[in-house]
Amino acid sequence: MISNNVTRLLDNRKIIYRAYELPKQKLGAEETARLLDVPLEIVFKSIVITRRGPGKPILAVVPGNKEVDLKALARVLGEKKVSPATQSEAENFTGLQAGGISPLALVNRGFEILIDQSALSHEAIHISGGELGLNIRLTGADLIQLTRGKTASIC
After folding, report:
1. What tens digit of pLDDT does each residue of 45-99 get?
2. Residue range 106-139, pLDDT digits in tens
3. What residue spans define the domains of the chain?
4. Residues 6+ apart with CB under 8 A from 82
5. Cα dist. 17→13, 89, 123, 125, 128 in Å?
6. Cα 123 to the chain's mean position, in Å?
7. CA-CA 20 to 30 A from 120: which of 39, 100, 140, 146?
8. d(Cα 117, Cα 154) in Å, to the nearest integer?
9. Domain 5-152 maps to which CATH number in 3.90.960.10, 2.30.30.90, 3.50.50.60, 3.30.70.260?
């Protein structure tokens, strides 16, 4: 079993989760859902979003079958305009490889985390485990509590 900062955080906080090992390559939400044999809407993806002005980037966590609504996200944040980071920017901002960017790997790193409210409507959701080849299944409520993330309709 893979052990990293994400799994140690979950273990230390006594969170019930399941870790899945997948091919160590950048996988999209659709490919992840297929490999795990789960519905696409419970595989959540992490999208790094940049602000127009100063401030840390935002991490939007949305279901794999949806896209971030940038206007809705900007409204929730009180920003005039936000835009998705490029893959290179996302990797530089987070220190993680695309495909391995996880909200749990960014706890206490200054990121504002917004999680689509649909995360609460499923028994469990899947997110990246903070590195390529690691996927984590946990409840949306646990993800929100651990990340101190805000929930909103952002799709």
Report:
1. 999 999 987 888 999 999 999 999 999 999 999 999 999 999 999 999 999 999 9
2. 998 989 999 999 999 999 999 999 999 999 999 9
3. 5-152
4. 49, 50, 51, 52, 58, 70, 73, 74
5. 11, 30, 12, 10, 12
6. 17
7. 100
8. 8
9. 3.90.960.10
- CA angle 101-103-108, nearest 5°? 115
